[in-house]
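Journal club prep — side note

Before the paper discussion, L.F. wants everyone to see what a predicted structure for a comparable chain looks like in token form. Sequence:
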Amino acid sequence: MSDQTLKASAGALPKAGIASRVGEREEARAMSLSRRRRASPWTFLIYVFLVVMTIFALFPIYFVLQASLRGNQTLYTTDLQLFPTKPTLDNYRFVLTQLPFLNWVWNSIYVCGLATLIGLFCSTTAAYALARFRFRGRQLTLVVLLGIYAFPSLLALMAYYLLLQSLHLINTLEGLALVYAAQSVVFGAWNMKGYFDTLPVELEQAALVDGATPTQAFWRVTLPLAAPALATTALFAFILGWNEFALANILLNSNGLGGESLGTNITFPVGIYSLTSNFRVPWGYFAAASVMVAVPIMILFFYLQRFFKSGLTIGSVKG
């Protein structure tokens, strides 16, 4: 009898444990439902806010798309239309066949690519020095860089113009690339410095112990680990010049814009602006060009997206 009692009690213990776990799950589920019911008004308001913000974010894209498909050059009509009544690709056809649009886009890619390479090299090396070395004036340098970043770039337009004129780089794509690179260095240095501060210095010390030089430790150890920050800095530097108009319009101002000879040594924002006149603004051409110039940026973003990840150094050093 005692053996049967022990077996029965031993078999009842797992069943009791399972029943208690099921009860705990049911209780947790009930508490979760009650919390959801209590938070339902706030949840509704949050969803309404997100829907409104989504509309604000997507409406400009929709507006440009529908304007590019209109046959005339009007930006909007008095009729409430979600889509053009007679959509057409005439605006795209005109921009691609009647204008040196592809040349303008290539010039923009060349200028922004060159500016990105120069700015990335300068900002990365400067950020590494500020993050790893201790020298007199280091904190002052960081403060000065922050002040330069807060300084409006248009106020330095005359200084840029005189400097490029003395270097015989006015009205050249290379001169404009130098200006864009100078503007991206400050943000790039701050962004890269913040990321270098998170990387363990023990990794570089281990490379030095293994016989690597400081330069080799930087290029082969630190720089590959900083790929997310490099991708972010490169994308910012590229977009900074891609959408810029004011500086390009002034520094590339002697290319015979307008009339029968549209300038070919210009970027696409300046080229598209040259289509305007005192009595006519071709909104359809503007919209079609805007849709097409978004493609390179999307390609660049999707290519760099694989670098946008963190935690590369977690577990690399035993702490």
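L.F.'s comment for the group: Residues 2-38 form the longest helix (37 residues). Keep this in mind when we get to the figures.
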